Fold this sequence. Notes:
The protein is an alpha/beta fold. Helices cover about 45% and strands about 15% of the residues. It starts with a helix and ends with a strand. This is Universal stress protein.
Amino acid sequence: MLKKIKGLVTGKRRPDGRQVDITKAGNIKESFEIHMEAATYAEGGMHEAARQVMNAVDSARRKVLVVGHEDRFSKAVMDYALGFAERMGYEIVALNVLPLPKESPRVAPYCSLISREFTSSCEECAVAFRRECERRGIPFVHEVRMGRVEDCIREVHNETRGIEFVISEPDVPPEVVQDGERWVIPVYSLAH
């Protein structure tokens, strides 16, 4: 048994040939299995391997997805997201979405041009967000997608491990809000 465990650690492959993937557990069963694996290494005298398994789990940082309005992030949403990420120890994944259908026959010939222009505009607008994250020591990743906003949020959520919350621009711009009314920034969690 000890020989198998050493082979798993040193070879970084499981007996069936699959690559070993150490990620933050998403549920109780995964968490239990990872902790049992670390305990098995420790009981077998492989304390460094047990530490590596546990460090890999602990080092997976939690993330918040910040969804801008088309190519922009409002100052209010950026400030809220920065404060949220700083207080909670989260990384920021910023998302801009070009709300065009991917398979539209009318738009198809122009998609690459529109996408390039949109991506360029998004990158310019995300510079201030990235700079403020760097100043505060918050890891920052910027994504640009095309399609329905809900679909793009779901795609990024499924592709990026550790996203726990979504902060998005309100449907109503701040200029439309009546005097005395509060402008509410939506924050929500998505289930896997």
